Amino acid sequence: MINQMISKRKSAFLLTDTDWHTRTIQWIVGILMLALYLWIGAGILSVMSNLPQILKNGWATVAEHIIIDIVLILAVLELIRILQSYLAVGRVKVTFILDVALVVLIGELIGLWYKEYTLIEVGLHITVITVLTLLRIVSIRFSPDATD
After folding, report:
1. Torsion angle of alpha carbons 45, 47, 48, 50, nearest 10°?
2. pLDDT in tens, 41-76
3. Which one of 1, 48, 71, 85 is CB 3.0 to 4.6 Å from 107, fit for a cystine?
């Protein structure tokens, strides 16, 4: 009887106590999601504040920044999707991580259009995007959630 009480008392203070661990992770993920929502809000305000510059500087000079900002906002939305899936499922889906990487790399490829770039840089970006796309297809095909 005393041994059972001692073992219950010891398990209550373990870092791997499921209830404590779950609540702590949910709290941390909630703070991260709040920070990402604030970042998205700041990004939207930044895009909106760049719109009046179109009238002054012309559309072509501002379009680069607006397009890149929008792609970054989409990448942050994908990060929020990762955090939401972690809270719902209890694990991170590889496809969501690949989605974020693809959005960021496609944004970088779009950014190259407005800079001086070499054929090697473009080829490297396209190669990495292709490999990540193939990995995404494989991860969906062989996912533990996939049904036959």
Report:
1. 120
2. 988 888 788 777 766 777 776 777 777 778 888 888
3. 71
